[in-house]
Design a protein that fits this description.
mainly alpha, 8 helices
């Protein structure tokens, strides 16, 4: 049975160059967006894992467990360290509650319409809920709503340009990640 690291390598092998190119600017953005501090490593992990997930999802319409699970676990551990180092236990509680809440919303959407929302989206929602919950409830709420606005806008453009039909499957993970990035950027600029 392959190790978790082997499974992650297998998922990334076909796209490693694109992910490698995208990871550097994503990491730089994460350092800026988090405002250098104890939580910065968690946001760098989120950004790099996010790039990998977006590329894989665009290519395969899958958000593999080999990337979401260790990414989520590492972000939670790093935010736990940040909470201990800064004495900000409430931020960690908010982050964990944010992950559970956003994951629950996406799970409900999955149960209502399985073809439209996969379990990979549910698992990614937990990761994004943790990270945006750490930043605050307003950031979490923006990250919860923006993917649907961005995805809807993209779908309208694709329909209008006849590059897609009403039945065309569109990878939603990149919109989830973009929504979280916009929300975290707005929080940093506020």
């Amino acid at each position: 049975m392959p190790s978790p690291l082997d499974r992650a390598r297998r998922e990334l092998a076909p796209v490693r160059r694109v992910v490698g190119v995208g990871a550097l600017p994503a990491a730089v953005w994460a350092v800026w967006a988090s405002g250098p501090g104890w939580a910065t490593p968690a946001f760098v992990v989120l950004a790099c894992v996010g790039v990998a997930l977006a590329v894989v999802d665009l290519r395969t319409h899958r958000l593999p467990d080999a990337l979401t699970r260790p990414g989520t676990a590492l972000v939670v551990v790093l935010l736990g360290v940040a909470a201990l180092a800064t004495g900000d236990g409430p931020a960690l509680v908010r982050a964990l509650a944010g992950g559970l809440a956003l994951g629950a919303v996406y799970l409900l959407l999955h149960l209502v319409h399985r073809a439209g929302m996969g379990l990979g989206d549910v698992k990614l929602a937990v990761l994004l809920g943790v990270a945006t919950g750490w930043a605050g409830w307003a950031t979490w709420a923006a990250a919860a709503l923006l993917p649907f606005l961005l995805g809807g806008l993209a779908a309208l453009v694709l329909l209008a340009t006849r590059r897609a039909s009403r039945t065309t499957a569109i990878a939603f993970g990149p919109f989830m990640l973009a929504g979280a990035a916009v929300a975290l950027t707005a929080a940093r600029l506020a």
